[in-house]
Amino acid sequence: MKRIVSFILVVLVTVGVMAYTSPGLLKDIRLGLDLKGGFEILYEAQPLEAGQAVTRESLTQTAKSLEQRANALGTSEPEVTTEGTNRIRLRLAGVTDEVEVRSKMKEPAELTFRSAAEDDEPGTYSKIELRGNEFVENGASVVYNSLNEPMVDIQVKDKEKFAEITKRLQGQPLAIYLDDELLSAPKVGQTLTDGKAQITGSFTREEANELRDTINLGALPLKLTEKYSQSVGASLGQLSLEQTIKAGIIASIFILVFMISMYRIPGVVASFALITHTWLVLAIFYLGDFVLTLPGIAAFILGIGMAVDANIITYERIKEELRSGKSILSAVKSGERISFRTVMDSNITTIIAASVMFWLGTGSVRGFAIVLIIDIVTSILTNVFFSRFLLNLLVKANLIKKPSYFGVKESEIRAL
Amino acid sequence: MRFKWDYDFIKISKYFYTFSIIITLLGILSLAIFGLNYGVDFRSGSNVDITASKSVTKEEIVPVLEEIGLAAEEPQISAGSDRISIRFPSVLNEEKESSLKASFNEKIDPEASFEVNTVDPEMAKELGRNAIYAVLLASLGIMIYVTIRFEWRFAVAAIVALLHDAFVVISIFSIFRLEVDLTFITAVLTIVGFSINDTIVVFDRIRENLRFSKIKTRTDLNEVVNRSISQTMTRSLYTTVTVFIASLFLFLLGGESIRMFSLAMVIGLVFGAYSSIFIASPLWAVLKGKQKPNHNNPSKTTP
């Protein structure tokens, strides 16, 4: 009686949690570009000048600049990641003017020092005095004054030119621009003859570091070439999503009907475990903030097929044990024990294959591999442990009395 | 439902060996002569897929391409009822891409939706190389695992079977000129995973049956293999059928961009089950049969 109660409780709680959370999960799972439309570009970064190398720092800085640009263009949730030693992957969804975004992304940003021209409005500066490539590479550093306020030290290549500029602009602001954005407009205090200067302002430590990085890297430090691009229309993505989900639902119904007709009560338990499995994978996607792509959905649906395998292996084994004349309890026990090894071996080998895919793959292959791995691991939890736990509760509660509940006919049982 | 599978699998396996060898040879031949029909992911170039709201013919598209100077590249155009696919052998730059979209929307169908994939040649080569590494590395990893858990003969037989499956799918894609893209690699790798999964289940049973049997002659060995296959047959059949049907639904109803993936899966699944029974297990029997007799067989001493 106690076991029946705990069985019902476990099922009810599980159903409750799933029913309560599922709508939110389905709404909030991040979809890949192939499912919601958008575009993806893989850039290869090269140094601006020959002979220089692409450093980790410059690559990250470039990625950061790209992200800022994407944000500035008003795209939603731009996703910029670095890949390997010289690649940057950019994913943008919901872009209306793709051409503009693409060209804006690639053009090298320019760092300039400007002064006010005659007809400039107050606070704007249009006369370019110095360009980014006129600074000493890696010559900028953050220093602190006596009040522990951060300042940025810079060095220019041409001392005379800098002396001339600072002399001419004494007491006036020399503004620092990144593209057309004003970063800061410090006033020139005195003529600087040694090619060194300090940029002061009410910076936070972080702002000072950023400014230093920008100057050091000469704005967008790397040249970007498009190596791969994919753009998917929003309605097309929607269509793919609908089609694949429809296929998935039909496939799942088929699998559930198959399991129940072949294995009766254990089949019902397995079906329940499979539904829990599906929910768990979605929950992991939500919690881990993974992006679901089309190949991902495919892997997901196939993973359900593999989860079914774990149940089939176990139940076939239990059936065999029943046919050899064992009691239901001992048939379930030994069937589960013997099949456990097989299930683990076959799952681990598939995990090995998926790990290799993840390790070597890029983009969609990687996405596929992640889903497959998550799928297999959760499948072990739900379709091995959880479904066994439920089945054992039923068996021990003496609710499954006859071998026919497992789909075994009396006539098939060998007498001991 | 219960099936009786008391066949002499080892005996009939020689026909299947022949069958597999023929397919493999055909595959090698086809690959040597025609190669694979590479999609844009590998071949480099641009691939434009258009979903239109109405039926569009090839004749309607050509003038549009001519106008923006893209017809000179002799793109491959396949126009379906509402799905048009244009393949450009060279990379379409941003400007051309957008003018193609604009004039298609203007002249043919304002509601058309586009999917454009562009790959740089260098990148394409790298993707192909990585794919081969992935299959080899996955095989190696699996081989090590199986050798640790079983013995090297099982590992060798399993790897032969999985490479066979992967190659058969590649061959079929080559023979029927089906397009190979990035998702195809994913499919092949999944097939590798499935194939090994299936083989392991059969091997596991062989290993178990070995414990309780005294192997003196080759006939005893064959008998154990046959018995193990017939014991796991129902499971192999059920699992393959379920996953097969799931893939089939994906192939028939799933989105266009995973169609080739699903097709590869459907083919691979059938061969995955087939090779576990008719290639891997008999091959293991052959390898095991060559083992020097009179050795202190550790499998016998295990309780």
TrEMBL record, chain A:
**Domain Protein export membrane protein SecD/SecF C-terminal, first and last residues per copy:** 227-394
User: Localized where?
Assistant: Cell membrane
InterPro entries assigned: SecD, SecD/SecF_arch_bac, SecD_1st, SecD_SecF_C, SecD_SecF_C_bact, SecDF_P1_head
User: Any transmembrane segments, and where?
Assistant: 294-313, 343-361, 367-391
> Which keywords annotate this record?
Cell membrane, Membrane, Protein transport, Translocation, Transmembrane, Transmembrane helix, Transport
Query: Boundaries of each Protein translocase subunit SecDF P1 domain copy?
Result: 60-116
Keyword Transport assigned: yes
SecDF P1 head subdomain domain residues are 127-221
State the annotated membrane topology for this chain. Multi-pass membrane protein
Major location (coarse): membrane
The record ties this protein, via PANTHER family, to: PROTEIN TRANSLOCASE SUBUNIT SECD, PROTEIN-EXPORT MEMBRANE PROTEIN SEC
Q: How does it assemble?
A: Forms a complex with SecF. Part of the essential Sec protein translocation apparatus which comprises SecA, SecYEG and auxiliary proteins SecDF. Other proteins may also be involved.
Supply the NCBIfam families for this chain: 2A0604s01, secD
Question: What does the UniProt function comment say about this protein?
Answer: Part of the Sec protein translocase complex. Interacts with the SecYEG preprotein conducting channel. SecDF uses the proton motive force (PMF) to complete protein translocation after the ATP-dependent function of SecA.
Q: Which family does it belong to?
A: Belongs to the SecD/SecF family. SecD subfamily.
What is this protein's record name? Protein translocase subunit SecD
Q: Gene name?
A: secD
From TrEMBL, chain B:
Residue span(s) of domain Protein export membrane protein SecD/SecF C-terminal: 111-288
Membrane disposition: Multi-pass membrane protein
Q: Which organism is it from?
A: Paenibacillus polygoni
| Membrane-spanning segments | 12-36, 131-148, 155-176, 182-203, 237-255, 261-287
A Pfam family this protein belongs to?
SecD_SecF_C
- Mind telling me what this protein is named? Protein-export membrane protein SecF
Report the principal subcellular site. membrane
- Please verify whether the record's keywords include RNA-binding: no
Similarity comment: Belongs to the SecD/SecF family. SecF subfamily.
Q: What does this protein do?
A: Part of the Sec protein translocase complex. Interacts with the SecYEG preprotein conducting channel. SecDF uses the proton motive force (PMF) to complete protein translocation after the ATP-dependent function of SecA.
Q: Where in the cell is it found?
A: Cell membrane
The protein's matches in InterPro entries, at most eight in alphabetical order, are given as:
SecD/SecF_arch_bac (IPR022813), SecD/SecF_bac (IPR022645), SecD/SecF_CS (IPR022646), SecD_SecF_C (IPR048634), SecD_SecF_C_bact (IPR055344), SecF_bac (IPR005665)
Keyword Membrane on entry:
yes
Task: Report keywords, A-Z.
Answer: Cell membrane, Membrane, Protein transport, Translocation, Transmembrane, Transmembrane helix, Transport
Q: Which domain of life is it from?
A: Bacteria
Give the multimer and partner information: Forms a complex with SecD. Part of the essential Sec protein translocation apparatus which comprises SecA, SecYEG and auxiliary proteins SecDF. Other proteins may also be involved.
